[in-house]
Amino acid sequence: MDIFIQQIINGLVLGSMYALVALGYTMVYGIINLINFAHGEVLMVGALTSWTVVTVLAGLGLPGWLLLLVSLVAAIVVCAALNFAIEKIAYRPLRNAPRLAPLITAMGMSLLLQTLAMIIWKPNYKPFPILLPSEPFHIAGAVINTTQILILVVTALTLAGLMFLVNKTKLGRAMRATAENPKVAGLMGVRPDTVISATFIIGAALAALAGVMYAANYGSVQHTMGFLPGLKAFTAAVFGGIGNLAGAMVGGVLLGLIESIGAGYIGALTGGILGSHYQDIFAFIVLILVLTLRPQGLLGERVADRA
Fold it and tell me: Residue 305: is its pLDDT beyond 70?
């Protein structure tokens, strides 16, 4: 039972990070029907930027929480500027092109960002310092630390804030109008290009937050670290229903739980043939099953009638 509770905690933490990245995928897809496969690399840039800021400021004697906060702000600024530039340079010229063109461009941007990160930060793994108290808290035999609690709280607040933004604010109404019909939205005073850029910036901020969380929780950063979380977050978005914000949240958390619980019991279920390091297979098993049995995802995509 202790193992099960521990894996539930681990799954919630992991799923929280998947949900944040999946929201970036689903917001962009919901507005311009583009799968931004470079989104995982934005997470990676955020984590490496955070590591750089922490390393530079480490000698100033600042408290750990302040270092983490400053590095998070820096990561969000860098990732927002990066995603804004990607949208304007790589995707906007292909807005009316066949769907295959921006898809290939997104894959190319992913490889380009990985290569640039390797050149700038070098290919070796870099330890991310422990900035928050590491004393564990015991819950029914399971263990959770301050960093993991912070991840759960910050994710919940962020997701609530995003839902408020999309459903209750002027920018949110503009996003929903652009997603439904950008031409008609333009005639009603909405600037689709501005809304799309804002969507990319918000998605980048979420990816940066997830990247810093990922680095703080796992303790290392590297130029390829965004590829697998990005791919799993895409799986989570498809699992929940891509184009649906609530679906991205549910899909991310459920995928994290499935992966974590599966990793805890896969050894017993396979008689020791497979170990916990095979946990990545669960994400792709889920993707295959969802695409086969329910392509629209658990909550379904909110499809607007286009004129």
Answer: no
Report residue 105 CA to chain centroid gap: 20
Within 8 A by CB and 6+ apart from 133, the residues are 145, 146
Cα four-point dihedral sign 216, 217, 222, 223: negative
For residue 188, give the DSSP letter: T
Alpha helix locations (H) across 94-242? 100-121, 146-168, 170-180, 182-187, 192-218, 227-240
The residue assigned the tokens 């807005």 is: 95
Q: What is the pTM of this model?
A: 0.89
DSSP of 51-87: HHHHHHHGGGT--HHHHHHHHHHHHHHHHHHHHHHHI
What is the tens place of the pLDDT at every residue in 257-285?
Answer: 988 888 777 766 666 666 666 777 888 88
User: What's 228's domain CATH number?
Assistant: 1.10.3470
- Token pair listed for 224: 């390829």
Q: Is residue 303 part of a domain?
A: no
Total structural domains in the chain? 1
Most confident of 174-188, 210-224, 240-254, 270-284: 210-224
183, 195 contact by CB (below 8 A): no
- Kind and range of the H or E run holding 262: helix 245-269
Residue 24 domain boundaries: 2-293
| Backbone CA torsion sign across 190, 191, 192, 194 | negative
Contact 209, 72 (CB under 8 A): yes
Under 8 Å between Cβ of 163 and 27: no
Does residue 298 lie in a domain region?
Answer: no
What digits encode the pLDDT tens for the residues 10-66? Answer: 899 999 999 999 998 898 888 888 888 899 999 999 999 999 999 999 888 888 889
pLDDT score recorded for residue 292: 87
Query: 104: Cβ–Cβ under 8 A, 6 or more apart, which residues?
Result: none
**For 91, which DSSP code?**
I
